[in-house]
Design brief:
This protein is α+β, with helices and mostly antiparallel strands and 198 residues long. The chain folds into two domains: 60 residues, TATA-Binding Protein, CATH 3.30.310; 128 residues, Ribonuclease H-like superfamily/Ribonuclease H (Nucleotidyltransferase, domain 5), CATH 3.30.420.10. The protein contains six helices and ten strands. It has a five-stranded antiparallel beta sheet with strand order 1-5-4-3-2, with helices on one face. A hairpin with a 4-residue loop joins strand 4 and strand 5. Helix 3 packs parallel to helix 5. It comes from Halobellus salinus. GO terms for molecular function: nucleic acid binding; RNA-DNA hybrid ribonuclease activity. This is Ribonuclease H.
């Protein structure tokens, strides 16, 4: 579970400014609780613990804008194609892993899962306020479609490519590259963990 070393009053103000509703804590040592989409936050004396299926629904609101550059890794997988699908993604800076996640996303194809992972990773990067992203994934098809080197004939994939390009346009500079699976091993592992933990 990610933990943010932040005064509970400062954290509360940041969340309230973003329109997040604050509730009383469940026990004496909890200052307050908050939830947004798929994340929950609990404030203690000197930190805020964030948990849930997608902690980045709250983490960027608690941490100041990062600026700078991040390396973004993504991976999606479907067992059956179409079949049960899961995603994994990682945000890395010079200081190490900033955030990561994995999630089951229902039944879909492998390519749609890859796009879902890319979109979730870019949303997280945008939420943290990075200026630049270098995106890496082991799906050559998705990378080439996003770069405009391959056409996207499937309407569902075309819609996802548009969303990915919209998110990329929010950054001052971006790249997207195909990498071997072993370079993308953490995102791959997170997607597989999401399968195993379902």
């Amino acid at each position: 579970m990610p933990s943010v070393n932040l005064d509970p009053d400062v954290a509360r103000k940041r969340l309230e400014a973003a329109g997040v509703e604050i509730e009383p804590g469940n026990v004496d040592h909890e200052h307050w609780r908050a939830s947004r989409r798929h994340a929950n936050a609990v404030a203690y004396d000197d930190n805020v613990v964030v948990q849930g299926a997608n902690p980045t629904d709250l983490l960027p609101l608690l941490r100041p804008a990062a600026g700078g550059r991040a390396h973004v890794y993504f991976d999606g997988a479907s067992r059956g194609n179409p079949g049960p699908a899961a995603i994994g993604w990682v945000l890395v800076t010079d200081e190490g892993i900033v955030d990561e996640g994995g999630d089951r996303i229902g039944e879909t194809t492998n390519n749609r899962a890859e796009y879902a992972a890319l979109i979730r990773a870019l949303e997280a990067g945008d939420g943290y306020g990075f200026d630049e992203v270098d995106v890496r994934g082991d799906s050559e098809l998705i990378v080439r479609q996003v770069r405009g080197e391959y056409d996207t004939n499937n309407p569902a994939l075309r819609e996802r490519r548009v969303r990915a390009r919209e998110l990329l346009a929010r950054f001052d500079r971006w790249t997207i590259e195909h990498v071997p699976r072993e370079v993308n091993d953490r995102a791959d592992a997170l997607a597989n963990e999401a399968f195993d933990n379902a």
